[in-house]
Amino acid sequence: MTQADLILKVATQLFAALGYDGTSTRQIAEAAGLNIATVNYHVGGKRELYLAVMERAHRAEKAALDSALDRLPGDDPVAAIHRMADDYLDFCVDNPEVPALWMHRWLSDASDITELERQYVKPLLTAVTTALRPAVEAGLISREADLEYTVWTVIWSVHGFAKGGVLDGEGRRRAGGDRAALRRFRAHLHLSLHRTLGLPGDPR
């Protein structure tokens, strides 16, 4: 692993845990076992490093989404819609730093960096809603369904589960690493999506 890759990895972990506003370049340098001058040499200042982290997170998320969208057209579009939800859930569970980074932004972290939602989030949201519209025209998705808000609802709930999990009977957090919790959340996600979109058949 190069020093630049190490810096990005450590910065991703710290930004995901503490947010942009709660992380300093010195913390990143110390966690990487480097000095600030080396960090600045490889990636620039804190803002440049944050932008590089968010770009890398976006590329990973986009690759997963593109793969899911490529499978959407087919003989069973209802099953493909559910597979797309599964793919997104699996991506967020496998890469919890990505939802964590975006959730910090939901709480106005790095509020002076305003272009990321327009640059990264909006195109992905548009890609998903556009891909779902043929199913509306075919009568598979209810015309009363709000596609954009449905996609946002999936994002909010999946990010919340991947980052925060749910509380069990003992008050302990259970998230993607807990097989039973993941299985239960996945079933709930499918049922909610199926009913919200008015899809035909039984999702269970």
Automatic annotation (TrEMBL):
<dbReference type="InterPro" id="IPR023772">
    <property type="entry name" value="DNA-bd_HTH_TetR-type_CS"/>
</dbReference>
<dbReference type="Pfam" id="PF00440">
    <property type="entry name" value="TetR_N"/>
</dbReference>
<feature type="DNA-binding region" description="H-T-H motif">
    <location>
        <begin position="24"/>
        <end position="43"/>
    </location>
</feature>
<dbReference type="InterPro" id="IPR009057">
    <property type="entry name" value="Homeodomain-like_sf"/>
</dbReference>
<dbReference type="InterPro" id="IPR050109">
    <property type="entry name" value="HTH-type_TetR-like_transc_reg"/>
</dbReference>
<feature type="domain" description="HTH tetR-type">
    <location>
        <begin position="1"/>
        <end position="61"/>
    </location>
</feature>
<protein>
    <submittedName>
        <fullName>TetR/AcrR family transcriptional regulator</fullName>
    </submittedName>
</protein>
<dbReference type="InterPro" id="IPR001647">
    <property type="entry name" value="HTH_TetR"/>
</dbReference>
<dbReference type="InterPro" id="IPR036271">
    <property type="entry name" value="Tet_transcr_reg_TetR-rel_C_sf"/>
</dbReference>
<keyword id="KW-0238">DNA-binding</keyword>
